[in-house]
Amino acid sequence: MNPIPEKHSYNDYLNESDVIDFSHPLIKERIRELISSQMSEIEKVRAVFHYVRDSIAHSWDIQSKRVTCRASEVLTYKEGICYAKSNLLAAMLRSVGVPTGFCYQRLTLFDTPDKGYCIHALNGVYIKDLNKWIRLDARGNKPGIQSEFSLDEERLAFRINEEYGEIDYPIIYATPNAKTLHTLETSKNALNMYKNRLPDFL
After folding, report:
1. CB 18: neighbour CB atoms within 10 A?
2. What confidence tens digit (pLDDT) does each residue in 145-155 have?
3. Which of 104, 130, 157, 175 could make an SS bond with 147 (beta carbons 3.0 to 4.6 A apart)?
4. Dihedral sign, CA of 7, 11, 12, 14?
């Protein structure tokens, strides 16, 4: 996959918003703990990716009912579904000047198409030193799901099965998808949301 940025200006991938609230004190504090001025850009991206992937639990994996959305909220409670975790990864990377956007896949929600579909969120990150966009998936690893930091061949959490009608969308969006944000902002129970309320098309 060669990801395609939606916007021409890298500045569009550095903006702050209510959801991507990287000026929040908690985010600033965590960045100070993770990042040093001696680190290269690639080392910074790798450190932040590993933190969000490994230290922020996926709500479904821990069977938590809590719904998080804003980046600072995800960091406060250290949990969220992929939409929320992608918000946090974007906020943390944007806070250190790394252009970061949002990418999506359409996947079967569970094992087979008859159990429904969902939109899955990951991130597109611009690596200035390499002059290229890469995609990173901070969903969180578990048996059967393994995403890694990779600058060359993508190592995402999910492989697309076209026979099942799954889709790998190539666009890197500058802002989170409106449907995914609406789902987070209007849901009260993360487990019910995950099973019944996730959008199935962009």
Report:
1. 9
2. 999 999 999 99
3. 157
4. positive
